[in-house]
């Protein structure tokens, strides 16, 4: 296979992986925000619901939730399989292993702290400017499995987004296609922002900033091409958002102006 054929094959592979995962979500997000902007109702008066209940029957709802989480991770398995070609260990290649657990956890908590406060500020600013919808982080009914499912959903988001949008894209883009670090950071960050666009321009910009920080860290000497700190940070942020929302009493949320 010639170099040109190899590059074309890798390019097609990237589009396929994204088309099955975050790229598909980005396209739907663009259509969704177009629908919101032409709905005749201001964005500030609209709501985006995450982790919604699928049915009123608890055990069936639990089944749907677990199936959704499991199938959402299939593109991650595909990406790891593709990166494992020619006998290479994909987990070690992108740092999705237990080689440096203490260091990875420390960086994960640090990144979560760095991103968490600015993220809330972007959301609050977007709400104040009327360019961000009201985000309902959890609409699951109160069951014994609600918190465990929300924890799994947070982990699923962390693994899916960081492995695909950062690690996989860095491996295929930078190492195999010769992208510059700047091109990778811009591409990864815009991709991250695009699939959050359904929440409005505010979350789009906030997630682009998060993407810049995460993709820069991954390619830095501190990050050492290890994705575990990013997964830890992303999971922590979603745990706070999902579980915190579910546990805060409805009257408290109303008093704070949260749906």
Automatic annotation (TrEMBL):
<feature type="transmembrane region" description="Helical">
    <location>
        <begin position="227"/>
        <end position="248"/>
    </location>
</feature>
<keyword id="KW-0812">Transmembrane</keyword>
<feature type="transmembrane region" description="Helical">
    <location>
        <begin position="204"/>
        <end position="220"/>
    </location>
</feature>
<feature type="transmembrane region" description="Helical">
    <location>
        <begin position="62"/>
        <end position="84"/>
    </location>
</feature>
<feature type="transmembrane region" description="Helical">
    <location>
        <begin position="105"/>
        <end position="125"/>
    </location>
</feature>
<keyword id="KW-0378">Hydrolase</keyword>
<keyword id="KW-0645">Protease</keyword>
<feature type="transmembrane region" description="Helical">
    <location>
        <begin position="12"/>
        <end position="35"/>
    </location>
</feature>
<keyword id="KW-0472">Membrane</keyword>
<keyword id="KW-0482">Metalloprotease</keyword>
<feature type="domain" description="CAAX prenyl protease 2/Lysostaphin resistance protein A-like">
    <location>
        <begin position="144"/>
        <end position="239"/>
    </location>
</feature>
<dbReference type="InterPro" id="IPR003675">
    <property type="entry name" value="Rce1/LyrA-like_dom"/>
</dbReference>
<protein>
    <submittedName>
        <fullName>CPBP family intramembrane metalloprotease</fullName>
    </submittedName>
</protein>
<dbReference type="GO" id="GO:0008237">
    <property type="term" value="F:metallopeptidase activity"/>
</dbReference>
<dbReference type="Pfam" id="PF02517">
    <property type="entry name" value="Rce1-like"/>
</dbReference>
<keyword id="KW-1133">Transmembrane helix</keyword>
